[in-house]
Amino acid sequence: MRSRSNSGVRLDGYGRLVQQTILRHQDAVTGLLPASADHQDAWVRDNVYSILAVWGLGLAYRKNADRDEDKAKAYELEQSVVKLMRGLLQCMMRQVDKVEAFKYSQSTRDCLHAKYNTHTCATVVGDHEWGHLQMDATSLYLLMLAQMTASGLHIIHSFDEVNFIQNLVFYIEAAYKTADFGIWERGDKTNQGITELNASSVGMAKAALEALDELDLFGAKGGPQSVIRVLSDEVQHCQSILHSMLPRASTSKEVDASVLSVISYPAFAVEDSELVEITKQEIITKLQGRYGCCRFLRDGYRTPKEDPKRLYYEPAELKLFENIECEWPLFWAYLMIDGIFSGNMEQVQEYREALEGVLIKGKNGVHLLPELYSVPPDKVDEEYRNPHTVDRIPMGKLPHMWGQSLYILGCLMAEGFLAPGEIDPLNRRFATVPKPDVVVQVCILAETEGIKAILQKEGFDVETVADVYPIRVQPARILSHIYARLGRNKQMCLTGRPYRHMGVLGTSKLYKIRKSIFTFTPQFIDQQQFYLALDNKMIVEMLRTDLSYLCSRWRMTGRPTITFPISHTMLDETSSSVHPTVLAMLQKLQDGYFGGARIQTGKLSEFLTTSCRTHLSFMDPGPEGKVYAKSYRLSSDSFEKLDTEEWLHGLQRMVREKDTYDEVAQYLDHLLQHTTPQSNLPPTTQRGGLSRFRAAVHTTRDLMSLASKAKDLHVQNVGMYVPSRIFQASQQSVKLLSSPHEHDLDSKSHALYAEMNLPRDEDGNVDCKALVDQLCICPTLQEQADILYMLHILKGPEWHTGLDSEPGPTVKELLTELYVRVGDTRQWALIRYISGILRKKVEALDEACTDLLSHQKHLTVGLPPEPREKTISTPIPYEELVRLIDEASEKNLSVSILTQEIMVYLAMYIRTQPALFAEMFRIRIGLIIQVMATELAHSLRCSAGEATENLMNLSPSDMKSLLYHILSGKEFGVEKSVRSVDSSLTTAVSICDMGAVGTTRPERTGLVRLKSEIKQQLDKRRQSLPGISVVLVLSAQSAGHTELLGKDSFSSMLEDQGSKDSRQGQWQRRRRLDGALNRVPVGFYQKVWKVLQKCHGLSVEGFVLPSSTTREMTPGEMKFAVHVESVLNRVPQPEYRQLLVEAILVLTMLVDMEVHTIGGIIPVEKILHIANDLFYEEQKALGADEHMLERDPSTGICSLLYDSAPSGRFGTMTYLSKSVALYVYDFLPTDGCSMQ
């Protein structure tokens, strides 16, 4: 017998340690590990971590085998790992119904359980008796399943199990928007059972998704059917949210040691090395002690001050746990392994020695790692006074198998028995290595031969959709339906992936389905989904955004390929040339650089070898032959989303001719099989006379009279019962929402109909047939919309109109056709109006809302105060979200659809420019819309009603641009023009950037812009040029398009400029903007926290922010910031709110003084009013007249104070400082300290 080598002896020592601390507890039947001798339940997370040492030791034995017995030992250890992983798989597969339900609900009641019976794999507590929803636990299991499979272990044995794992991928792919109970099982740190978004869960899910993508679960013996597929867009959602959260761990935890598992082994989920280092140092600085690291600040678990009889804490009780939190050696094991992976041997040595100092010697001399170290009950006061000085005692599980396992794994690596690549065969440790630059391939296609000829005339050599055959082109929504088949399993009642929006990463790959290659067009050009795609400028902006996103987020093998079809809607008004904006984009693409991305244009056939390609093997025929059984057909609801596109049907017809009509073509026809509605709507008459329906209400005076009569009749929501222009004309100011009251409308609405002079039948009821007849003589699309809306209200969307024949098209079908017609004319107010009637789904609205929430921003819709202003703090389903927006919008369809549109734009900006939202924790969309209208009124010098109408008429691209300028605070220009639409002149407003000297930048399209210098010169010469009434600006390159600036807007602007200083009002506007955006100075909330420690609370308009808040929350908690904001948001006027913020900011200056207290509850508004009175008296003494010192009737604040700069002799801070000094004078020290 050979003598044992030194390394073999050392391995045998670790083998005995693993056997005595871990394997001896493993259940012989299920393979599961109990938490300890006293806790027989098996936690998923603890089991996976605990078996890592066994897996590592098995790899070490296989690598360092001296003799056959070592190979046998390696096999035994590996099979122990397989047994445990399969035991956990059995536990979860028994809850397959929960996996299926959770994919759609993301509810705590439908989640997998966190712990199971060690001996039977059964559940041990009820669904609501434990914080079961722990995304990190399921994700950790999947991550290590992938790593172990890649290392050569065979854990998955059948296709049913493969399908189940695929559905677990769907289970965790929404982790970025799923609030859970987290790694410590109790959610919010108050232990009140409140779920929250946790960085540890999001990061672990991201790692698991990346690890499983394209992994064959059968290993080397597998085939295409056993490969797991992950949608890259979901991974990048997790990545984006994780980066926005770190180093913060969650809303209630400003730092948490569990994040070590995300930034280092095992997840390696963060790609930014600087962020990794910042997060690690934050943990070490704030949480590390003499025995390990605290889990998080004010963690009461197992401390002497915790009441073991109560599971939950009182909020003010958390202060008791400060500085006496238990310290866990477990985190030193993480830091030791982190040092090995990062190559920092000093860190390895430091933490290995530290761990050896806290180990406890058990029976037979085995070294055990305890769960935690706690302060002795009799030493608590001493520890309060001098943190980290008291000797602590070990408590909890001994050994703590999770920590013991990581400690052993770290030692095996430190001693060279294991290399980092052996326990990370998927190479996740290279996450922070810089990635090569991405080149995006763009293929331009023409919808028809005619468009192809137009593009060739412009110098672009392109193909049509038919030319690229055998490559097939489909819209993105088809890919969503195809992926909905992934993971289906009849036997386990698994329906596959929920139908979800397909992101740009998904549509930028080529797909092989059976023998055909498919490419999918981007989601944003689908005009049938939502009206944003009707705006060519918006399409160009969205393409620019997607290209930039691809460059920063592409991680796959091969280049991304975007297929971009040019349709007839991208031509100009004459349909003889490409729209100038689209043409400029095509030229930039051909130049090779657009949106910050390197571009390669070409034909699809040229890109086949360089593109990223995926084989969708789940679309292959199964053992039953045909794969598209009846059970897989779509519901009728699905078809409503699948409007026909003629060019796609043309492609399918061509496929039938050129190739056998295979099952895939049949299935795609099935998806696109929604007949195009026939043209039923009569054309507008193009005559000047108004119909009888409109005759009674066509003047402004009549409109206002009608609105007044409706009010007298107590009929609320008049916009629901009269044409849109009537409603818009009766709107007051820029407050786009009316009062929130609902009444019974039956009898009162009949009286209103009588006032509108609607046609009547013999019984006196509204004659709907006569209304249908009016459609044939309507001169404008607007009037057709008004009549159809009235029919929609009176008869409902499915009422057959009998137009042309019986039963005739339904109201909904006519509205849908009208939507298409209006889309061609680009009447944006009317497009939004009809979209609201049709309840068109705003593209990915729920995903946009989730994106904002996942970046730790709360949303409000509607105008303040509550209850009209509704707060959204957690992701909610699409239908519920739309209902909430409708309710907050008072059923005003245009405002409702605009709110949804703004939410989509906000999500676009938070994904690409998160810095715009710095120091903003609550985004108030109602106030933002109000400020947008106010800014238009200010720029156009028009009334509030006109500004509202102009806002609704903005194109999506201009709306998005205006929002950007509001968020960024940059100056912008507003240009007003008139164009002929529907035989009438329509006013159009566009938003443009201001250059460095205050001039608008000329568009590359050649459209001549009105320069601000002209305005300045005319302002000086106003007296000498009294006759100016109209300015015509002709474009040299536009095809007969004329811009017209009328007398009303231009001359009124001149008058205002002549009577006002251009700087007047700028500070009031800035405060209004900052107040509406909830923007505060950096560090504001931390300073408020310190103020609350020196008083009993702050009162704002009767709402108190108590000092007890500081006992529950730490200064850096987002939860605290949101709490402060909720009090400030009680103030409806944004500029008044901002002055209150300035007053609080002055109060925070007292914190740095040696003042022990500054009083009881401090009324902030009182301090502001004292400052206002000081300002008023001083200005009056200086000769200001009453008109200049006019007070805001709602707040009593001088308008001039609103418009004063913060600094300077007459600045707001000067008067607020004096006011604070007067208010807290009695509390200031009498010696050695004075206000500066």
From TrEMBL:
Residue ranges of every copy of the GH15-like domain listed in the record: 8-926
Major location (coarse): membrane
Pathway(s) the chain acts in: Glycan biosynthesis; glycogen metabolism
Lipid-carrying residues in chain (S-farnesyl cysteine): 1233
Gene Ontology molecular-function annotations: calmodulin binding; kinase activity
Family: Belongs to the phosphorylase b kinase regulatory chain family.
This protein's name: Phosphorylase b kinase regulatory subunit
Domain Phosphorylase b kinase regulatory subunit alpha/beta C-terminal: 1056-1154
One Pfam family from the record: Glyco_hydro_15
This protein's GO CC annotations: phosphorylase kinase complex; plasma membrane
UniProt function note: Phosphorylase b kinase catalyzes the phosphorylation of serine in certain substrates, including troponin I. The alpha chain may bind calmodulin.
Topology of this chain in the membrane: Lipid-anchor
Compartments in which it is found: Cell membrane
Keywords: Calmodulin-binding, Carbohydrate metabolism, Cell membrane, Glycogen metabolism, Kinase, Lipoprotein, Membrane, Phosphoprotein, Prenylation, Transferase
Gene Ontology biological-process entries: glycogen metabolic process
Protein modification: Although the final Cys may be farnesylated, the terminal tripeptide is probably not removed, and the C-terminus is not methylated.
